[in-house]
Amino acid sequence: MNELFFSLTLLTSTALTDQIRANKPSIDPTLARSIATINAEMCQKYKVDCKLVTAIQMQESGYRLNVVAGGDYGIMQVNEYNIKAYGLRMV
Fold first, then answer.
1. pTM score, two decimals?
2. What is the chain's Cα-based Rg?
3. pLDDT tens per residue, range 8-53
4. 3-state secondary structure the chain
5. Which conformational region is residue 66 in: left (phi greater than 0), alpha (psi within -120 to 50 degrees), or beta?
């Protein structure tokens, strides 16, 4: 089972890396791979569409990890209310 999960993650990660680089050609390739790998793992774990998450990240932050805009934080631009409501922490 772990081998299958690893294979699916690798395939998804490669496709997401390509999507990220197509969306933002100027992004550092290592950062694109890191974002894609994390997205693939978390989306499979929580059964969320990886392409949708990756598109939201591009729209909200341009794949910038530490962006802060009007009380919204990070690559997904989570707002202060939700950070507090869900007990999230900034890393």
1. 0.81
2. 14
3. 455 678 999 999 999 999 999 999 999 999 999 999 899 999 989 9
4. CHHHHHHHHHHHHHHHHHHHHHHCCCCCHHHHHHHHHHHHHHHHHHCCCHHHHHHHHHHHHCCCCCCEECCEECCCCEEHHHHHHCCCCCC
5. alpha
